[in-house]
Amino acid sequence: MVRLFQRFYNENPVTEEALEVILYNNIFRKHLRFLRESQKWKKIHLEEYQQKQLSRLLNHSYRNVPYYKNLFDKFNIEPNEINSIKDLKKIPFLTKQIVKENVEEIKAANYPLRKFKYTTTGGSTGFPLGFFVEKGVAKAKNMAFYQSLLDNAGCFLTEKHAYFIGYNNIYRYQFFRRIMVLSSFFITDDNLPIYINKLRKFKPKFIMGFTSAITNLARYMDKNSIDFFPSIKTVVCAGETLFDWQRDILERTFQCRVHALYDHFEQAVFGTTCEYSNYYHLYPQYGITELVHEDGTPVVNEDEEGEIVATGFNNFIFPFIRYKTGDIGILTHKKCKCGRDYLLLKSIEGRKQEIIVSKEKRYISLTGFYGLIAKFSKNVKDCQIAQEKEGEILLFIVKEKDYTKKDEDLIIKNFKDRFKGEIDIVIQYVDNIPRTAGGKFKFLIQKLSVEY
Ligand SMILES: [Zn+2]
Q1: Full set of structural domains in the chain with CATH
Q2: CA of 158 to the centre of ligand 1 (A)
């Protein structure tokens, strides 16, 4: 789950950002008004809106995007005949591999060159995927979606806030010192007092950023009985899966509601928790989100899991239509108290790519394993798995100071119970787990080629 906001906060020098904000303020405000209104719409009304957007997107893609022109011709798809979301399944999936091989063909021909901004997913999805987003307008719309999430916590983007993302200094200020960027690269026991001191002085209204970075801060505060920050009204976790045990420690330490945000640089899907529940609410105004089984059929039953497939309405310059995200979600039909008639997911469970290979070449998903280690051993500060040969994994562990042989035995037992002899475990103790180039935590380093 690579996120958009990091790019926004990483790449905009203060002046350019300020100018853009002024320039696109109208788009932001208009879109936010629309989101605040449409979140009360009934499903039928939302679907009408989606159909209209879908029709615009498909007609545009057929006229202006060579890849889709060829694809629709090949499969005899007439954009005007796709009048409902159900008809959408006539269109074949767009995979990361297809994007990689067709980057030039997916660019919309009717946009001027200056509107194209090249971006990549940063490689946490197996290989870095390069594609284009539209400069300016799309960003303004995206900010409206972020504000819509913050509405749920009574916060505003214009208020002082702190971001935990990958950055080469421990901290810096942005946007007339309204935003403090804190780096996920340097979160160690030695540095954490600096982070805490900065936050204490800065008094942010909310913090947002990579789940593991904020969790490490919370664990340190918890362990050392450090007071919470009274100014912080909410914590928004993004960029990495938020596990229940992490939410527990974050809510206990920060004494506020913890929200989860799910989005991508590809700008095709956007989901958040709401005022009342921890379900992911997938915004129908952002695009069409489907959940599919491995054979491509839709997931329909309660508690069933499937891959998230996204069609985005906000990036006409490089359309993602039925894009297989590689993220796994669990469906629920339960209604949420907030009343939003959106697709709800109980959780978003890691990535499909987190697969290890057994002695018999069987693929085993690591979904839930990070939680398993961290939850059952509070003395594990950080951990990571690497696989270099079939049937064996290396488990790197950074110990807390109370870590004993008992913790090691418990971890080995948990793994053995799950793997039933199919995988051998070798534990190695290390001083720290390096983050990716983007500053994110990566649970599995898979050196074998795993194909689906
Ligand atoms: Zn809700």
Answers
A1: 4-351 (3.40.50.12780), 355-446 (3.30.300.30)
A2: 24
Residue 341 CA to ligand 1 center (angstroms) comes to: 9
Q: Give yes or no for a contact between 102 and 67, defined as CB atoms under 8 angstroms apart.
A: yes
Q: How far is the CA of 83 from the centre of ligand 1 (A)?
A: 28
Question: What distance in angstroms lies between residue 56's CA and the mean position of ligand 1's atoms?
Answer: 29
- Candidates 155, 156, 144, 152; CA nearest to 276 is 152
Q: From the CA of 333, how far away is ligand 1's center (Å)?
A: 12
The packing angle between helices 137-151 and 4-11, to 10°, is 120
pLDDT at 10: 55
- C-alpha 275 to ligand 1 mean position (Å): 6
Give the distance (Å) from ligand 1 centre to CA of residue 283. Answer: 11
CA of 198 to the centre of ligand 1 (A): 33
Average pLDDT over residues 126-144: 82
Per-residue pLDDT tens over the stretch 211-230: 888 988 998 999 899 999 99
Whether the full predicted model's pTM is greater than 0.85, yes or no, is no
Q: Is 265 a residue whose pLDDT tops 50?
A: yes
Give the percent of the chain with pLDDT over 70: 90
Give the separation between CA 346 and CA 278, rounded to whole angstroms: 7
- How many A from CA of 64 to the centre of ligand 1? 37
Band of residue 37 on the pLDDT scale cut at 50, 70, 90: very high
Those residues with Cβ within 8 angstroms of residue 182's Cβ, 6 or more apart along the chain or in another chain: 162, 163, 164, 165, 167, 170, 171, 195, 198, 199, 209, 213
259 Cα: distance to centroid of ligand 1 (angstroms): 12
**Residue listed under structure tokens 């009343």:** 339
CA of 410 to the centre of ligand 1 (A): 37
Where is 297: in which H helix or E strand? none
- d(CA 273, ligand 1 centre) in Å: 7
- With b meaning 16 or more CB within 10 Å and e meaning fewer, what string describes 333-368? eeebebebbbbbbbbbbbbbbbbbbbeeeeebbbbe
State the average pLDDT for the chain. 88
How far apart are alpha carbons 272 and 261 in whole angstroms? 5
